[in-house]
Description:
Helix content: 25-40%
Low-confidence stretches: none
CATH class: Alpha Beta
Strand content: 35-45%
Number of domains: 1
Radius of gyration: 14 Å
Oligomer: single chain
Strand order of the largest sheet: 2-3-1-4
Distance between the termini: 19 Å
Order of helices and strands: EHEEHEH
Structural class: alpha+beta
Shape: elongated
Mean pLDDT: 93
Number of strands: 4
Amino acid sequence: MSAEHPAKVYVAYCTCPDAATAESLAGELVEAGLAACVNILPSVRSVYRWQGAIERDEELLMLIKTSAARVDALIAHIRERHPYDVPEVICHPISAGNDDYLDWVRQCTKTQA
């Protein structure tokens, strides 16, 4: 990610097994300045292959807004703190949006020099 322009804003997706995990991770990410905002969407149904078997689980989905400069640290934090062996963290650049909102995300996730 570090090759991307640091002013870019990203939305990251991360599934969680329960509300307590999602709330805890969301709070940690915002407090650490790794995310400006995290939306927690309840009750997504996930169907996936894991260790050779087809699994079906109810999960929650976090929509995490961050800057390109914080993507690597955000992924590392989730990998360290998430209860899954291989947590889903998928990051997409935002190509357009409300400039005031995108500036706010950049300000909230500005790295401290």
